[in-house]
């Protein structure tokens, strides 16, 4: 019994092998988690871009319902200079300024709205080609809903 008591008194911490095992396990967990998290963040940015496009399409439908001109395409570039209400015309008057999900504040998001009757379709380009919606033709709200984040860079 005395030997057992002596052994427990001398063990005050973890051995080096035990600490190394913990560090290796934490490293494996980090190696698995970091790529997954970065993919989730990129997907959420693409979702925000799709949401921006749907917001503009809703504004275009409101513009058409208000008697706006649907015969010509509407081109607009969002920038810090065009964010004042006096400089926003046409469809841009009907929605808030588009924010770039990738965070480049001064870079412009460009979009073009075309109408088939009163149904709007959009082509939208975010800076650096991170998400270009409508490369294969203008996308309607239905197209965006069906494709989801896959509509980016199609």
Summarize the structure.
With 154 residues, this protein is an alpha+beta fold. The chain has a domain at 46-151.
Q: What's the arrangement of secondary structure elements?
A:
Elements: H1 2-10, H2 16-65, E1 74-78, E2 109-116, E3 119-125, E4 132-133, H3 141-147
Antiparallel strand pairs: 1-2, 2-3, 3-4
Main beta sheet, described? 4 strands, antiparallel
How much β-strand is present in the residues?
5-15%
Strand segment tally: 4
Low-confidence stretches: none
Strand order of the largest sheet: 1-2-3-4
Residue share in helix: 40-55%
Question: What is the count of DSSP helices, taking H or I runs of 4+ residues?
Answer: 3
Q: How does the helix and strand content classify structurally?
A: alpha+beta
The secondary-structure element order is: HHEEEEH
Nearest-integer average pLDDT:
84
Q: Tell me, what's the shape?
A: rod-shaped
Radius of gyration: 27 Å
């Amino acid at each position: 019994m005395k030997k057992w008591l002596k052994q427990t008194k001398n063990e005050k911490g973890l051995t080096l092998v035990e600490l190394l095992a913990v560090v290796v396990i934490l490293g494996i967990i980090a190696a698995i988690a970091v790529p997954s998290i970065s993919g989730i963040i990129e997907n959420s940015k693409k979702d925000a871009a799709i949401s921006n496009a749907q917001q503009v399409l809703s504004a275009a439908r409101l513009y058409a319902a208000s008697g706006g001109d649907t015969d010509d395409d509407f081109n607009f570039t969002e920038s810090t200079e065009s964010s004042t209400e006096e400089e926003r015309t046409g469809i841009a008057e009907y929605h808030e300024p588009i924010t770039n999900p990738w965070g480049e504040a001064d870079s412009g998001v460009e979009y073009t709205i075309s109408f088939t009757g009163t149904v709007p379709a959009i082509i939208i380009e975010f800076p650096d080609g991170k998400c270009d919606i409508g490369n294969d033709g203008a996308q309607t709200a239905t197209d965006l809903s069906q494709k989801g984040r896959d509509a980016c860079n199609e």
